[in-house]
Amino acid sequence: MKRKTLLLEADIIQQIKSAFNLNQIEITELLTQAKRYDPKGTGYVSKTEVDDIMRGMKLIQQYRSQITQQ
Fold it and tell me: What residue segments make up the domains of the chain, in order of their start?
């Protein structure tokens, strides 16, 4: 079975920018998290791993919105 992979820098940053309004520090933190899934340093991570990272970001975004509403 062939793994679906994404180029770490370009594809992940594009997905993040389209989904969230993040500053550069937050984007850098996400790339750091994504690189944990790339121990060989190839620059590619699987689509499911990117989905896990994005799911984590959605939870953080929901938490932030709850805090600002209070």
Answer: 5-69
Residues 6+ apart with CB under 8 A from 12: 6, 30, 31, 34, 45, 50, 53
Question: pLDDT 10s digit of each residue in the chain, 70 long?
Answer: 455 666 666 776 777 777 777 777 877 777 787 788 787 878 777 778 877 877 887 777 777 777 777 6
- The answer to whether 12 touches 20, Cβ cutoff 8 Å, is no
Q: Which amino acid is at 52?
A: D
Helix (H, G, I), strand (E, B) or coil at 47: helix
- Residue identified by tokens 């938490």 is 63
Strand partners, 7: 44
